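G., the chain you wanted modeled:
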Amino acid sequence: MLPPTDQQTPTAALLQSPEAQGLEQAVGDMHLLLEQHGHVVAVYPSGIGPAHERRMHTVRSMLESDRIALLKVDLPPLGVAVLVRQLRQLSICDFSPGVVASAARLLAHYIHAGAQLNSVARLDRVPVSLRTHAKSWVPGSQFAVLAAPKPQLVKLGPATEPPAGPSFGTHLAVAKGQLASDWVQQTLAPAWQVQAITECPLPSASPRWWGTGKLVEFASYLPDISVIYQLVSSVRRESCHWCGMELIGDRCGFCSAPLGPPENRMRATGVLPQGTAEPPGT
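Predicted structure as tokens:
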């Protein structure tokens, strides 16, 4: 979990894995969170262990609660941490829990998450060609891999262009593993024209996600809560036809039900297309 950006941003609760916590205690902790906050939005990466994911669904089922949103996102660990902090920022704005939960899919589109790796031999999250796999065994090889929003992979060299980055103003979070390199700060950041760089500890799940501990993970993101607020506010809000929660986009964050058919609702003209639209105010 990343530290708050200001004194207003709340902290987050970490849901423990089955190996670290028994089921009874996990149910008790979730019940306490619901009692304290009313709703829980749990965000986790698609690469999480199956047992951990089953645990969260089991806890929600045992509590028989429709106030728990389980959001699986297809981002690397540092990208997930950045997204969670943005949702923490939104949680104190005048948005309903349903809007905060469904905003995760929207905000993830504006996160550029990747890593500098010394090897892609064990990388299975991003498409890697056989030729690139072979190059990975050459001593001294290094690669720049972008996992989101669109997979990219380049072998680094003196004249190598960095992966294409955001076309709007961002900050860059950098987490160093066992790879001693300043390429991200000295080459990638200027190419992406980031406005600020923040170093943070490497998430514990990163070596497994990227297939190596010799890496430098990075994620660019929208840092300004006013821009994030305007972005979320610009999307038309709907009511879930299944659970009644508010939502933006095409799917409910709490029950995962898709948006109702057009004949049963007004046209959602505010929903952003899956293009590269820039966020407002940038």
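Residues 265-277 have pLDDT under 50 and may be disordered.

Shout if anything looks off.
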